[in-house]
């Protein structure tokens, strides 16, 4: 029997996952949590074989949560089930110790296979995530492609918007905009906004 804890901040999603997993004779959902803090408490108490968790949760979340689960409950494997598949999300969570990474639009049979694989400590990735990892391995760091969010930020910068205005449009903080721009500068090997916009146009990124 594979003992599973479901972690998601949406009750409907947790109910849906519990219902789906409950259709399989070899799964037992032994707990659920709506936040990172609650997840750590539940996992420490029931010691499941697999934690199926979203990335975006009340803190701790994402790679930090994966790292904490792996350090505090080494026998529990972490299967990420999320709608987010950016390079940063994928790489950081796998580096933190996630055993698998699936998107929420995956067919239920794929989810079942992933939970079983995770319980065996076998890595399982959705096709799009696997493709991203292969591309990242094959691409030199200096030529790493821009993420969707970095592209959005740079597009707005190219329109002449300030960091504050970009943040307002994308509903992110000004500090986050600056961080995205720093990543853009590093990837395009340029020193500033104007150079980034110019380089992006030359490379057909905008």
UniProtKB/TrEMBL annotation:
Keywords from the UniProt entry: DNA-binding, Phosphoprotein, Transcription, Transcription regulation
SUPFAM superfamilies in the record: C-terminal effector domain of the bipartite response regulators, CheY-like
GO biological process, one term: regulation of DNA-templated transcription
Domain HTH luxR-type, chain residue ranges per copy: 139-204
Domain Response regulatory: 3-119
Gene3D superfamilies reported in the protein's UniProt record: 3.40.50.2300
A GO MF term: DNA binding
Positions of post-translational 4-aspartylphosphate modification: 54
The protein, known as: Two component transcriptional regulator, LuxR family
Source organism (scientific name): Lentzea albidocapillata
Highest classification ranks of the organism: Bacteria, Bacillati, Actinomycetota, Actinomycetes, Pseudonocardiales
